[in-house]
Amino acid sequence: MSDDITLQFADKVGRINQRLDQLVEDSSSPYATLFKAARYTLFGGGKRLRPLLAIVTAESLGVDLSKILDPACALELVHTYSLVHDDLPCMDDDDFRRDRPTLHKLYPEAVAILTGDFLLTYAFEVLTEAPYLQPKQSLRLIRSLSKAAGGHGMVAGQIMDLEAEGEVVEIGALEKIHQCKTAALLSAAFEFAGIVAEVDAATLLTLHKLGESLGLAFQIIDDVLDSSSRKKEGQKKGSDVENSKNTYVTLMGIERSKRRAYKLLEESYQFIETLPCVSHKLRLLAKHLVVRGC
Ligand code: GRG
After folding, report:
1. Which backbone phi and psi does 97 adopt, to 5 degrees?
2. Which of 15, 84, 94, 182 is deepest in the core (most CB within 10 A)?
């Protein structure tokens, strides 16, 4: 994110970090390693985009931060689990994330797996205990997050991605992978805002579609940035090229990929326009997910 945007949302990121710090405390229990490892990965410099999207959208819809903060943190717990498991030797086999050793490089691999399991499971516990929500709202949040994370969501995206390694896939198949891997959790973030704000079914569907468009645009730009940093640094272990991964850039080239991302951003703006609220901040945040560093 650019400096301007970082400043704009610094207070919210601060609140997210503060709450995560309370939710995942250091422990002096016999299983303290789990909490140390979770904190290493949770406080490793993530941008907190998913909780930010949930909070900014919910606030635009008139929700108080106190109601959306814990659900927003649950999104970050799931996101963090997915990064830990994605980096494992049996998946992408990455040695570094956010310029620091990945969790399995610092701890035994089993600890990294268990830490991911803990973060994923704990996200749902947090949702059951989120304050100021009616039981029906908590259930709807749990349903939304399970769908995004599960067998038709992130896990599905991951398995399709692994199976496509070394094969050349069609662009439609790649989009399906990224809808599941990346966009599903963004859709859940927007849905979270709608559920907490108690919007109608049509608005909830718009929020879901907003996540699909913006999530895909975000992923395409991630591929573009990944390919330019690879050019600068040479091929790294765990890079998309080393793993023979299909990316938007390998299938469409940089310029066409960017055009596709900007078209999806326009589509996202249209969804934002139809929301029953003034959403200038949301539009700004959406833009900065896509128009960044390239
Ligand atoms: C179920 C193990 C498992 C994985 C699911 C989400 C996922 C699939 C894997 C994570 C790795 C990956 C490349 C995801 C694509 C989405 C993406 C661009 C993640 C990075 O998100 P940022 O930029 O990360 O928000 P920070 O570091 O800011 O938290």
Report:
1. -140, 140
2. 84
Of the candidates 144, 289, 146, the one whose C-alpha atom is nearest the C-alpha of residue 219 is: 289
pLDDT of residue 229: 76
Q: So what's the pLDDT on residue 294? A: 65
Task: Determine the distance from the C-alpha atom of residue 257 to the mean position of all C-alpha atoms in its chain, rounded to a whole number.
Answer: 20
Instruction: Quote the CA–CA distance of 231 and 29 in Å, as a whole number.
Output: 46
Burial class of 25 by CB neighbour count within 10 A (0 to 12, 13 to 18, 19+): exposed
Does an H or E element contain 138, and which?
Answer: helix 135-149
**Helix/strand/coil percent split, the chain, to 5:** 70, 0, 25
Mutate to test the pocket of ligand 1, among 80, 152, 182 (most ligand atoms within 8 A of CB): 182
The pLDDT assigned to 127 comes to 98
Exposed e or buried b per residue across 115-128, where buried means at least 16 C-beta atoms within 10 angstroms of its C-beta? bbebbbebbbebbe
Q: What is the pLDDT of residue 235?
A: 47
Report the C-alpha gap between 115 and 33 in whole angstroms. 9
Q: What's the 79 CA to ligand 1 centre distance in angstroms?
A: 7
State how far the alpha carbon of 169 is from the alpha carbons of 105, 154, 164, in Å. Answer: 31, 19, 7
Backbone angles phi and psi of 101, in degrees to 5: -60, 140
CA distance 289 to 216: 11
| Confidence category of residue 4, pLDDT binned at 50, 70, 90 | low
